[in-house]
Amino acid sequence: MQCGVETMNDCERSPGRTGLRVNFTEKGEVKERREKFLTAKYGTHQMSLIRKRLAVEMWLYDELQKLFDPPNEAVDVDIDEILDMDTDDIRRSHLFSLLSNSSCKRSEKDISKFISDLLDRAKTL
User: Phi then psi for 122, rounded to 5 degrees?
Assistant: First the structure.
């Protein structure tokens, strides 16, 4: 929208400015209204847990990329599934079978170290 101020006579202005008027001209269509999103605020403790979880997931992603030669063939490891298992022995055997059945070209020593590191990090969650 454009605002213009016109006077009856630009040369002669009255002290009370009685001849002033404002004209609004429409300039195209009105832009669509912005979408509003509601974002949740988390408490300090909850944000700390979220950051810790995110750090473990990012570490897991990076390590899986290192384990698999072409990264697009990486295995999807679900942390929640690992955490829901009862003991570390069950977790370890599940992860080992998951990684050994895939196209992982690393040695068993590298896989065992990855599993141990993952289990240590999972205990912090």
Answer: -65, -30
With 0.85 as the threshold, say if the pTM is over it.
Answer: no
The total of other beta-carbon atoms located within 10 Å of residue 106's CB is 15
CB atoms within 10 A of CB 110: 15
Sign of CA dihedral 94, 100, 105, 111: positive
Which residues face 23 on adjacent strands?
Answer: 4
Q: How far is residue 61's CA from residue 47's CA, in Å, rounded to a whole number?
A: 21
Report pLDDT for 97.
86
- The residue with greater pLDDT, 60 or 23, is 60
Could you give the C-alpha distances from 118 to 41, 58, 62, 80, 114, in angstroms and in order? 30, 12, 12, 12, 6
Q: Encoding tokens for residue 122?
A: 């999972």
Are 68 and 102 in contact by the 8 Å Cβ rule? The answer is yes
